[in-house]
Specification:
Number of strands: 12
Number of helices: 29
Largest sheet: 3 strands, antiparallel
Radius of gyration: 29 Å
Mean pLDDT: 83
Oligomer: single chain
Strand content: 5-15%
Length: about 750
Amino acid sequence: MALPVEEWRLCAARRWAALDPALRERLEAAASLQDTVRLGCGLLRPEVEAAALQRLCRRARAGKEPAAARFYREEGNRLFGRRQYRAAVRLYSQAASHELPGSPEVSLCFANRSAALFHLGCFEVCLEDIARAESHGYPDRLLPKVLLRKAECLLALGRLQEAADALSVVESKIAMDGIMTSPTHQTLLGKLSQLKVKMHEKERCPEPAREAPGDIQKESEIWEENDSISGASSSLSLNFDTERGRHLVASQDILPGQSLLKEEAFVSVLCPGESLHLQDSSETVWDTRVTNADLYCHRCLRQLLASVPCCGCSYAKYCSQKCADMAWEQYHRTECSLGPLLLTLGVFCHVALRAVLLAGFPEVRRLVEWSHGGDKDHHNPEARCKHLSEAADIRAGSRGIPGCNDSGQYQSSYQAVFNLLPHAEKHSPEHKFLCMLSVVAICKQLQEAGLEAAVLNQESSEKWSKPKTCEETSGELSPELKTVAAAMLRHVLQLQCNAQAITVMQESGSGDGAVVNKKPVRLATAFFPVLSLLNHSCSPNISVSFSGTAVTVRASQPIPSGQEVLHCYDMLCCSNEACAVSVSRESLSHRLQDLQQQIKNALELLRARKADQAIKMLQKCQMDAGNLLSPEHLLMGEMEDHLAQVYATLGKWQEAARHLQRSIEIVEIHHGPSSVEIGHELFKLAQILFNGFAVSEALSTIQRAEEILLVHCGPQSTQIQELQEMKTCLLELPRSILQRT
């Protein structure tokens, strides 16, 4: 959710409508975003808007709640008993996120999770959880059991000496406990004996050493970095003109598949699941649905198996203690207590806050003051002229291009982020007011929670979480926080046209079919200063892919020297310009939502193994959509894709291929014959033809899919490897079969 929740948007709209007309005019005519903040920071009334926001925040649970921890741990135990180990891992992780650090309860969560991980064969991660359980005070009487599990993991990993040491510790521990006749002790002793036998067998017949991952030589790509643009290839140059603004052009001929940019996001924020906003404070039923917030590290966006929870809130989760510590040091110690507010106000506000925290207040103040001409010198013409000259220098750099540093280099830095255009004049006054009121609400919360010093980098961390007393606070923001609010407002407006969605390919459907159906899902929202230099085109010549918080841009077609490098920002729209049916935007939106809900219901039927009913519902959706949309609309292609999925589940491969080929025709109209979208669709078609034993058609489809996906995803892509495996399997068939097919 990029923008605030609907209730807050309506609240801000009512406040805007009730403003004195003269004040509305002054807000609309404000010369700078800093002036907008100065005029508007007193408009958040404690008894109305602030109180409404506080009520909304209660719905976004982000605190640690013992009742939730008990519920999730018990649910995890129940699924563990059913041998649903992966689901149990998720629930134990949820339980751990609600427990206090260092408590016996959190150690139990880690120990239980280690048992589920052991059954999944994730021995390294299991060892990490055992260490966490021990470090958080796991009960001494239960320790032999987890130490035996530790020895089993070490044995499975071939670390024999460590396994022997662990077994010695277990033996000593059992002996120290005294009574050796209880059923528990007898079970432990039996397990210990079994492990000793296993270890002696391993010592007599050691397994051959496995080749280390680092020994495998991967094909390395020739890459020469640009001297002037960080992360960009030397085959690009940065240009500027009044019509196109900053843009990248090819400085030499570029081939399809050639890497053009490798950039880490300056800032990124994981997009939360919608379920986080559906809970009311009076509810006692806890949500067990899994969202991206449970599946990916909140800092580096790596996929999570056994998450490390934040020490202060239940929302933030990390892939390792290192990531948790880095996030805390860089920004989360300020964000942690603001979790419900940030979830309520949306990802754009969260990105804006995190950007200023990462930049540091001195850099934020420097750029805000220069961008607004220095209010302190407003009435001094000589000083103002000098200040404006300095502002022009800092924005343009020595080469006259905004965002470059004094050496003429365009770096992936806060200065580059700050110089992205907010297009303030193109936003409606109501939208700017909503954004202003939202960032002011965040800054007021920072001030009231005693976090201002943390934001301004002024005091030690011990003093950062101390709230101010009533005497120390007032309704007025401090000058420093007004500066922070002005920067945040700029970033929220920038994000409307400069936000980059970090996407990940996720499986859709039941996941148990013969065809893997994947689609790109928005994982996070980020600022990529260099990527943002690319202008939009409906006919792009590049493809974008992500790995964690890093983006890679590759040429999707030949780009001759001097041609601009262009990116496509897609949106769902009707492509039939000659359509005679005229409906309001609101009516069209509602009808599209209804169709999408019907499609969702059909997929639920498929997951419930009611394929025949799913087919009937999708066919009805097609008939309804035919009265509203053109045959080439993307939603029509999506329905063909889902029908192919259902028929593949039934093993009706020819019917599945027929529907998927129709989907491919529609996708090709919108994205082009060499697009990454076509590559993904051809990958699915290759799977269907492979399973349907249509050998010649499968081989030709595999070849086309390989050619496209190699350009967009590179040779290390899992899809490329799967295509090559299918091709090898087909080519190894007897010649007589190949000739028949």
